Amino acid sequence: MARPDDDALSWDGDDDPTLDVGAAPAAPRSDLPSGYTAVGKGAESVAAAGAASSSGVGAAPVVAPAAGPMGNATLITIGVLGGVYALFTIGWLLGAGRLQLIADLFLDPVAFQVTRWLAVLAAPLWFGTVLLLTREKPAWMRLVLLAAGAVLLVPWPFVLAGAAL
What we know:
The protein is mainly α. It folds into 2 domains: 30-61, no CATH class; 72-161, no CATH class. Helix content is 55%, strand content 0%. It comes from Microbacterium terricola. Keywords: Membrane, Transmembrane, Transmembrane helix. The chain crosses the membrane at residues 75-94, 114-133, 140-159. Residues 1-32 are annotated as: Disordered.
């Protein structure tokens, strides 16, 4: 007979005879194609299961595991940096527009417009390029490159002149 203290440690239906609680775990099977070698943690169990079913073809290339999904902190950081890059785009647009009068006096108007729009598009291009080229890389590399771009692409005309004349 169970004591009242043991009631908290049991679940209704634990004594169901259809539950198979005493069965041994199934032997691991090898999902590797012939010619591939398992490495890393748990490789012994895969190799032991594979040795029974294959004939040992020899050394083969090792496939690196795919990168897992990003964590919440990484996603939030990328979102914040994306907002910073959007503000930088607006800052370059406003800051370079403030230099229009000076550029008309001293620079070729076509050259100024080309460089103005390159400066405006630099932040979103950097952001998109980093996201595109670091898809299979570690998250820290993506964050370092985005942080470096945030330092390099500061809209200095807007910062130095401000929003008002």
